[in-house]
Amino acid sequence: MHVTSKYVGGSASAGRTISSSITDHTPIHTHTHTHTHKHKHTSGNSTSQHHSFIMHSKEHISHDEYQKTADWLRSHTKHRPLVAIICGSGLGMLADTLKCQDSFDYSDIPGFPQSTVQGHAGRLVFGELKGKSCVCMQGRFHMYEGHSLIKTTFPIRVFKLMGVETLIVTNAAGSLADGLQPGDIMIIKDHINFPGLVGLNPLCGPNDEKFGPRFPAMSGCYDKGLRSLMMEIAKQMGVAGLVQEGVYAMVGGPNFETIAEAKLLHRLGVDAVGMSTAPEVVVATHCGLRVFGLSLITNKVVKSYEDSESVNHEGVLEVGRLRSQTVQQLVTELISTMEINNNENTKIVS
Ligand SMILES: O=P(O)(O)O[C@@H]1C[C@H](O)[C@@H](CO)O1
């Protein structure tokens, strides 16, 4: 494997003591925060959102509806992306690095849900990363916002219909593993979809065979080749000490874990916990997308009654900002280096 890019700011040596600028490759210490949360207000009808959440298992979006949104986007942008990126909390800046941008507020895209979480801009950005056409979700949808899982994962099938072949998911997550510190980056090796295990699964309801089979396999849903490519890239960048593989667990949120829940997750072998990603990956795998996932560890999950620290969303966003450059460099290099099918979809329509 040959990784060609040069990096600015990475130390030559791997290991936890890598030093660079204070905002980048240094270990990050979290604090107990006492800020109150500010939520974005949207024009969405909260009553109908709540209703659709309750009705999640009966809700159905037809193939035509996904197609309509895909067609609308194709007619409004010259880009024909093969790679889609979902930006996690505090990681939206990745989209700003795209060249030749066409961007759309979610509220302007027919059929798109609205993002309501602070730190999620609510914009779809098309553009080029290292000459490769990409689409980036600056803000994702979470179950706890009141979206049904069908709505939460709506963009994935739209991307599929637009010709996307690879999905890169990023998220902010709390660590259970002793070896994962705030500021570390976890390549997702596998996930535990807690809502899915009890039937809160976007694939519930009538199966659309045009997207995939009724009973899709999920073993190997995080592409092995891309995982090892990312490790190689991290070594080349001199940040291998910040990067390791692990298991992500999705919980429903929006509250962070109790100490008893944290102990349970730890005993189950969960390395990092968050409130997203698994439904997106399930839908992407169902429709045959290749998936790569990355968690930015923003906090340690409190798992001792002696510990007086507590986590909050502002702290999560802060670590996202501090590590955004490293995450951007890693993802950019992954896209630049990975093999992408070179069919007519890669071309920009003039
Ligand atoms: O969208 P992600 O999964 O990155 O967001 C995480 C989980 C919650 O939405 C939020 C908690 O701070 O960050």
UniProtKB/TrEMBL annotation:
Keywords: Glycosyltransferase, Purine salvage, Transferase
GO MF term list: purine-nucleoside phosphorylase activity
Known EC number: 2.4.2.1
InterPro entries the record matches: Nucleoside_phosphorylase_d, Nucleoside_phosphorylase_sf, Pur_Nuc_Pase_Ino/Guo-sp, Purine_phosphorylase, Purine_phosphorylase-2_CS
Region (Disordered): 1-49
Pathway(s) served: Purine metabolism; purine nucleoside salvage
Family affiliation: Belongs to the PNP/MTAP phosphorylase family.
Record function comment: Catalyzes the phosphorolytic breakdown of the N-glycosidic bond in the beta-(deoxy)ribonucleoside molecules, with the formation of the corresponding free purine bases and pentose-1-phosphate. Preferentially acts on 6-oxopurine nucleosides including inosine and guanosine.
NCBIfam families cross-referenced by the UniProt entry: PNPH, PNPH-PUNA-XAPA, PRK08202.1
PANTHER family, A to Z: METHYLTHIOADENOSINE/PURINE NUCLEOSIDE PHOSPHORYLASE, PURINE NUCLEOSIDE PHOSPHORYLASE
Assembly behavior: Homotrimer.
Protein name as annotated: Purine nucleoside phosphorylase
Organism: Fundulus heteroclitus (Killifish)
